Amino acid sequence: MNNKKYSTLFIYILSILISSCSALFGDKKNDTTNDVLKQGAIDPNLIPTQVGYVPLYPFFQNFSHPVDVYVGYDQMIYVIDDNGLNILDQKGTHNLVIPILGATDVIQDRSLHLYVAGRINHPTLGNRAAVYHLINTAGGNYQFIDTLIHPLCDDSRSSTGNRGADDEAVQITGLATLADNTLYISRTGPRNDVTSFIRPDNAVLVYNQKGENISYALGLTPTTSSLKSVMGVSSIASLAGPPQRVNGISTSNDFFITQASSDPSVEYRFLRITVTNDPDLGFVYNETPSYLNFDHTKADRFQYQSFRFKKPEDCYVSPDNLQYSFVVDSGTDSLYVFTNQGFEGVNPPANSTFKKQIIVSFGGPGSDGTSSGPFSFNDPCGVCYFSKVIYVADKNNNRICRYKLSTDLQ
């Protein structure tokens, strides 16, 4: 009698488990499955049979034209849109919005100091490009502790007057920090006389955490396309990045830049600048000619192919040992992925018979004509990487998209 009761109970429990598993993993049209997918699961319909990126749901919504996204050392998600600086937790919950005029870019250093590129209405200079320096942003009790204002923040302009409309036209286009909290600022503008003692507007400037302009990237060409040009530089990225750790973070001073200049002569729009410290000359900024090694036995496409990009808006480098680099191009509405040797693609799995880099770049027009599907973008302007997840600021779809490589799903 007791055995019969236990058998009946076992069958009942087993039927519930089978029903539950069917609901979660069987019929993908089931309402329970849809609810799980909406709460952050991966749609099994979209997992590729080969190596590729998989969208992580939900995409973060309720933004107004987001142009940059960054996951900080404090693990908060920072999004720049028309409203200013949006601060989210890892679940995508909107915690706070800090209004910042004309905000375009955000970065954080290892001391959890946050920098936001935007504009300021200065009482005597007028409307000028600026970088806002904030602390305590994760806790909500934020403080503005400094503002770097063009041209006051450029040491070479200390003895020059206001250039009026030309100074107003200068834009700060990118921010990056190093392991020692050095800050890189990229900018563009109309004045680019390389014979002058005044630095060209198309430049990368270097600052310490006190906000002091300690140097700039001398030798980058502001008006001529080359392997170390800064024509319409649209973003900058270093090799150091979150998560916070004591050892293992890159101490390199190298950086990547993108060039979105409308000049059709710009041949290489996504560049790596190699930085060396010479005992006599100080920091020297060089091109990376090794990226011109188009080894077709290892890859099919390359970062330094001539005229590879149309209008790259942002770039980022994964801070792990692989150092994949990512770039979003609003001209092609696409995300591209490269190795630290300039090969397009990611490493094949260990058990794969395929020996070349596997191309996982994606985007372009949507098959439905709306450019709003999970693998489509409409004017992507920002990209970052954190804990094997890629974040894309999809400007005209008003969303932050998230993706993970299929081989990282285990």
Structure commentary:
With 410 residues, this protein is mainly beta. It is built from three helices and 24 strands. It has helices at 2-26, 31-38, 165-169, and strands at 53-55, 68-71, 77-81, 84-88, 94-98, 105-108, 114-122, 126-135, 143-149, 171-177, 183-188, 203-207, 213-216, 233-238, 255-259, 270-278, 282-286, 312-317, 325-329, 334-338, 362-363, 380-386, 389-394, 399-405. Strand 16 and strand 17 (282-286) form a beta hairpin. It is globular, with a radius of gyration of 24 Å.
Summarize the helices and strands and which ones pair or pack.
Elements lengths: L1 H25 L4 H8 L14 E3 L12 E4 L5 E5 L2 E5 L5 E5 L6 E4 L5 E9 L3 E10 L7 E7 L15 H5 L1 E7 L5 E6 L14 E5 L5 E4 L16 E6 L16 E5 L10 E9 L3 E5 L25 E6 L7 E5 L4 E5 L23 E2 L16 E7 L2 E6 L4 E7 L5
Antiparallel strand pairs: 1-24, 2-3, 3-4, 4-5, 6-7, 7-8, 8-9, 10-11, 11-12, 12-13, 14-15, 15-16, 16-17, 18-19, 19-20, 20-21, 22-23, 23-24
Helix pairs in contact: 1-2
